[in-house]
Amino acid sequence: MALTKVTGSGADGLNLSSTDVTISSGDLLFATANKGVVLGVTSNTDGNTLDDYEEGLFTPVLGGENMTHNDRCRYTKIGRLVTLNFDATANASASTDEVISGLPFTPDGSYGSLHIAYATGGGIEGGYIGNSTDQIRLTVAGGTGADNLAANQRIIGSGTYFTDS
What b-and-e string marks burial along 53-78, b requiring 16 or more CB atoms within 10 Å of the CB? Predict the structure, then answer.
């Protein structure tokens, strides 16, 4: 098969050969929803199709109040997998065991992993991402509830979980 070029507005955009498709400029866009890229398989099934990618910011909420984050709470969603990084400061004290809500997507029925890299005060050692709730649950040594975060306490960490959407 000879090389075929698709040209638009005077620039080569798409090159087809017997073995490759090369996009020289622009993006690969699907005209309808529920389409994606099938990677490394011989059949086109939903489970083998990458059909969602998104990245952005989220605002964590503690005790009903937004936490200060200065655009340092970010997420990336690839398929059903959500990875987040956060660096936030409590604006007010929480009145119950530490639950931070406001995750960008609701987890599916499984728990997600959480890594706390730094936390001021409160003895916070770890935590987890709740199943079927958009919450991070913080813990102290022994896996029990955490001391309450006070105003101006900072927490830095990352987490990974699956969502149904």
Answer: eeeeebebbbbeeebbbeeebbbebe
Of the chain, the end-to-end C-alpha distance in Å amounts to 41
pLDDT digit string (tens) for 14-58?
777 878 888 877 777 888 877 888 777 777 777 777 888 999 999
For residue 121, give every residue at least 6 positions away whose Cβ sits within 8 Å of its Cβ, in sequence order, or none. Answer: 147, 149, 150, 153
Residues 6 or more apart whose CB falls under 8 angstroms from that of 23 comprise 13, 14
**C-beta separation of 155 from 149 below 8 A:** yes
Q: How far is CA 41 from CA 28, 44, 48, in A?
A: 20, 8, 7
d(CA 151, CA 8): 57
48-52, 120-124, 160-164, range with the lowest pLDDT: 120-124
Closest of 142, 140, 99 to residue 119, by C-alpha: 140
Q: Decide if 88 contacts 136 (C-beta within 8 A).
A: no
Which candidate, 69, 76, 77, 71, places its Cα nearest to that of 100?
Answer: 69
